[in-house]
Amino acid sequence: MPIVLSEVGYRYSQGLPWEKSALRNINLQVEKNEILGIIGPTGSGKTTLLQLMNGILTASQGEVLINGKNPANMRGAEMTRLRQQVGLVFQSPEDQLFENRVYDDIAFGPRNLGLTGSELDNRVK
User: Fold this and answer.
1) Range of the domain at 99
2) What is the mean pLDDT of residues 68-79?
3) What are the pLDDT digits (tens) for 1-17?
4) Are residues 93 and 64 located together in one domain of the fold?
5) What are the residues whose beta carbons fall under 8 Å from the beta carbon of 44, sequence distance 6 or more?
């Protein structure tokens, strides 16, 4: 599932006096099974970028494609399928779902899809 960002930008509070540009002109492609590290200081747009890459936020400019489709145009079952294929683990435990272990947070989604036992364990690992 490739994720492609073309000339992507994001502005918080767009159109308001306190509008803030978080990202500008981002071009990036992430291939299936590719590992990507995103580093930078606090407030540099790392979390915003990840939220754009998994469809939580919609780009203010440019285009985000996940497996050839723009998540901004997805609704209902199509968005549900995307959510089943793309995940995000936050850096701070207090921002996670509710578990004490990363394993359990990652397992939350697959468990809710009916996976159990070794199948669940293989997916999480």
Assistant:
1) 89-125
2) 88
3) 689 999 999 999 988 99
4) no
5) none
- Domain total in the chain: 2
**52 and 102 part of one domain:** no
Residue type, 6: S
Task: Please report the DSSP string for the chain in residue order.
Answer: --EEEEEEEEEETTTSTT-EEEEEEEEEEE-TT--------TTSSHHHHHHHHTTSS--SEEEEEETTB-GGG--HHHHHHHHHH-----SSGGGSSS-SSHHHHHHHHHHHTT--HHHHHHHH-
Tokens of 96: 């996670």
Tokens of 29: 């492609």
Indicate whether 7 and 57 sit together in one domain. Answer: yes
pLDDT at 18 (0 to 100): 92
